[in-house]
Design goal:
Number of helices of chain A: 10
Structural class of chain A: mainly alpha
Distance between the termini of chain B: 93 Å
Number of helices of chain B: 12
Oligomer: heterodimer
Radius of gyration of chain A: 20 Å
Strand content of chain B: under 5%
Shape of chain A: globular
Number of strands of chain A: 0
Largest sheet of chain A: none
Largest interface: A-B, 33 and 38 residues
Order of helices and strands of chain A: HHHHHHHHHH
Order of helices and strands of chain B: HHHHHHHHHHHH
Amino acid sequence: MRPVLTLARYVLLEALRSGLPWLGLACVVAALAAAAFVSQVAIAESRETQAAVGAALLRAGAVLIVALHVVASVAREANDKGIELLLAFPISRPAYYLGKLLGHAAAAAGLATLCALATLLWAKPADALAWWISLAAETALVATAALFFATVLSQATAAIFATLGLYLLARSFAAIQAIASGPLAEESMAAQATRWALEALGLLLPRLDAVTRAEWLLYGVATAGELWRALVESGLYIALLAAAGLFDFSRRNL
Amino acid sequence: MSRDERPASAVPSWILVLLATSLAGQVAWQAARGSAALTASDLPPAPAAGALRAASLGEPAAGARLAMIWLQGFDLRGGNVARYRELDYARLVAWLRQILATDPRSNYPLFAAARVYAEVEDAARARLVMRFVHEAYLEDPDRRWPWLAHAAFLAKHRLKDLALARRYAHDIDRLTTDASVPLWAKQMEIFILEDMNELEAARVMLGGLLASGRVRDPAERRFLEQRLQEIERRIR
């Protein structure tokens, strides 16, 4: 456990020194400015509009920053031959991977905290707390996905594309499924096969449309179960991606 | 196995257990949740066309079609017994109107309106959609006449409202100017008048059409002349 924590600490230190907090702060300022602009032109519900737009922008910004930061960090370490150096020490591969994962997840949670603090401008503390917990879980999931793809694909562009693609698919998959099963959907074999394929894919994707919703800041979390489900959703997928990443990393010849 | 990979036996067993467990957990969780389906009551109020255009990020043609694909996912609970019974048609028409305004050259909203939503069993709902088709037609008759022609057909055969059918047919004849608009569409009013027993008006219109020389196809001209003779015989 000790090597995992040590590595995680260094990953956090790297995040701090590579300007991640400043980037996060810039994201917060940009989101606040955009939300303020939108609320100025809204003729009704200006405060709610500000909260909804601001929260959505903060969420998107945090996810994007985390994905890019993790992929860039893995690519830099691979180019510097840092993996080979670290694994020359008495650190097991799983400990190395888990340390990286824990460090990136902690950095993501820090970024989520910065974003959640900004939402206190518009929302009640209890609602902002629920949003923060959910965003921390969501950004940790994105960090896990980015680490997985950056490790497996070895190409930064491909890893970023895969991470953001997975995220967007997970965000929109409920809508895609609903459209596919709409009343005008064809009854042909091809259409049926597409629906089955979508059902199968749905089993392998998290439902991120149900996580970190801006409406929580406006109307509160509907039920405690909603937040609980969001956390289980993210937790399960983090475990799955981490296991897949550990499996791949353990098999790789370095 | 490639040269860059170690055998699976090199992977610690706890990682394999974690992978299998987390995969099973993920599948079980999602299977228990089930997939979402759009229901009639979920249809939100329509946004402004400007908002739809903004949301399409400078691609209104793509945005309008994606919005249509999303919209057509709404229906109906309990099978196809009473299609769209629970759908809020006022909202539906508002959506169709805004999507059409987002990409006015798209036929998708009018196709869906005339061929899908207007064919509902409920006459009040059908009329609402047909009114939308008529209003849209007035903005661009030469492009949108097929949908109004279908609305006229529905008004005549489904709603049995010959006056409404005649109004639509009359507008098609009156407002279309493109030479590509087929004569059958411009002649619709004559046959509706015939059905309404307005034989004198039908005779005048059909006679005028034949005299105008616009009917060039010999077979068509022969058919219309026979119809004219039949109308004149009925008048006598």
